Amino acid sequence: MKVARKIREDELGPASEVLARAFYRDPLQNYTFPDDAERAAHSPAHFAAALKYGFKFGEVYTLDGVPGASIWLKPGETEITPERAEAGGFTALPGQIGEEAFNRFFTAISYAEELHKADVPEPHWYTMVLGVDPEFQGEGYGPALLRPIFERSADDRTPIYLETGQPKNVAFYEKLGFRVLRDVIEPSSGVRMWTFRRDP
Q1: Among 56, 87, 111, 187, which residue carries the largest CB count within 10 Å?
Q2: CA–CA separation, 152 and 66 (whole Å)
Q3: DSSP string, 143-199
Q4: How many angstroms separate the Cα of 6 from the Cα of each of 54, 66, 146?
Q5: How far apart, in whole angstroms, are the C-alpha atoms of residue 100 and residue 64?
Q6: Cβ pair 161, 121 in contact under 8 A
Q7: Residue among 2, 8, 17 nearest 134 (CA)
């Protein structure tokens, strides 16, 4: 059985490249960076900020060789405050990925955040990002990257929440015990989004 572990700081760079490849055809990432070349060039910086934030304020898991990564925020700490956003590198993103791309992403993700607050007002684990390099998808790495928090959720009796804009992920998450809470269209991007909850 594949066993995930907490990521080392020196693996954050490789993980950002892996996540950029994993999300290259993700609908929300395509909306953020409509041009293929721009998406390839700027997605690593985009995910580097999320990884840095998770490493500082949450938990990040990978496996040996960094075939994928999962970024988690802890119960009671799922709100990204302005101070933490700056410390985690999010406020530097407009200069790294471009103002227009940042604004597109921020508008769409703000909509998702409102759903998040309404869907799970109680303490919960939040799957901020889960991605596996396309080369390794379908080999059990995704479930392995979720398993550590499934165990923590069972121990502390708190639910897990996530959202996706990737249609093929719906069945994947349902097989792992998540149930769909919402199936909506994000108005600014036209991206279809699903929100999920998994109870311990």
Answers
A1: 111
A2: 22
A3: HHHHHHHHHHHHHHT--EEEEE--TTHHHHHHHTT-EEEEEEE-TTT--EEEEEEE-
A4: 11, 11, 12
A5: 36
A6: no
A7: 17
Residues in Cβ contact with 168 at an 8 Å cutoff, skipping those fewer than 6 apart:
none
- 85: tokens are 């956003």
Task: Give the pLDDT confidence score for residue 88 in this predicted structure.
Answer: 87
Q: Answer whether residue 81 shows pLDDT above 90.
A: no
- In which band, very low, low, confident or very high, does the pLDDT at 128 lie, cut at 50, 70 and 90? very high
CB 176 within 8 Å of CB 198: yes
Q: Where are the beta strands (DSSP E) in the chain?
A: 5-6, 59-62, 68-73, 125-132, 160-164, 179-185, 192-198
The radius of gyration computed from the CA coordinates of the chain, to the nearest angstrom, equals 16
Give the model's confidence band at 1: pLDDT under 50 very low, under 70 low, under 90 confident, else very high. Answer: confident
Residue 89 pLDDT greater than 90, yes or no: no
